[in-house]
Amino acid sequence: MRIARTMAAAAVLALGMPAAAQDGPPPVVAAEAPTEPKAIPLYGDATPGNAATENWGRIGGASYFVRNVTRPTLTPVLPDPAKATGAAVVVAPGGAFMGLAISHEGWRVAQALADRGIAAFVLKYRLLPTPGDEAEAGRFIAQRLAAADGGNADGPPRIGNPQTTQDGLAALAMVRARAAEWGVDPKRVGMIGFSAGAMTALNTALAAGADGNSSEGPAFIGYIYGPQDAPAVPTDAPPLFDAIAFDDPLFPTKGFPVAAAWRKAGRPVELHAYQRGSHGFGLGLSGTTTTGLLDQFTAWLTMQGFLTPAGSR
Asked: Where does the signal sequence lie (predicted)?
């Protein structure tokens, strides 16, 4: 049963889009790569890969989706200086580590944050390889997710890519190194991630802590419809905002052990469990309370003090 559920949800996870009640997620149609004039190579002249490897598509004829990213980049989306708070967020889209829902969970999220005075930076991180043909890639991703399931009746598919964690740390380092240029406070740079992007944000924080350099990790985490399994939470873990829908077809809530682990470690955590929303609701699925996600996240950042300069608190 778990394998069947994973196969049914695989396309939803890969596309980073909510499933329709009967028809499932919309198809991906091959598209020309969009112009990304503000995208910055993540490692400067040492950035690996080649943009020519990328396969771009459009979901439902609108939202961009990209696969086979080998050259990671960071795209700034900055607020009007008159309303800038000095806070910054690295935005990590999802897509099963084999694609990025870069419009739905990247550019749109970044613009919404900038509209609220928060500098945002879309991370196009390195991905696991998939076939070039869209239809073949869809079958490959579904099969890979089902195989990664491992027969675990309760846990998420076991899949990931360690390069995404490296890219997460590099993105945070770039924002902090150029903080003065971009008008941000290096101590108020966090991450928000969706699905695989949520795992990337979490893994980035845990990797920084494991190396004894937790200050190199995110100052806070937006963990949006990521797996709810409990990690080992260090005592200096960043504050966590955890949001997921009860009807998520891929990641069962299971009593929210990730939030419980944060509380057990004595670290700040807020949980939002939506009645409906499926997986991949992004900035919100029409007709559900998930549409309040970003306002709730921003209110939480305000409560934590991240939208106020240190000298003003």
From this structure: 1-21
The per-residue pLDDT for 151 is 42
The CATH code that applies to domain 2-306 is: 3.40.50.1820
What is the distance between the alpha carbons of residues 296 and 306, in angstroms, rounded to a whole number?
Answer: 14
The encoded tokens of residue 269 equal 């955590």
Question: What stretches of 186-308 adopt beta strand conformation (E)?
Answer: 189-194, 221-224, 240-245, 269-274
Name the pTM for this structure: 0.91
Contact 95, 15 (CB under 8 A): yes
Cα 156-48-212 angle, rounded to 5 deg: 60
pLDDT of 313 reads 60
Write the DSSP string, 181-211: HHT--GGGEEEEEETHHHHHHHHHHHHHHHT
70-85: pLDDT as tens digits? 999 999 999 999 999 9
The Cα 301–Cα 313 span in angstroms is 13
Tokens of 158: 């076991």
Angle separating helix axes 134-148 and 2-15, nearest 10 degrees: 130
Q: Tell me the C-alpha distance between 106 and 299, whole Å.
A: 20
Sign of CA dihedral 301, 303, 307, 313: negative
Q: Residue 15's pLDDT band (boundaries 50, 70, 90)? A: low
Q: Do the beta carbons of residue 251 and residue 229 sit within 8 Å?
A: no
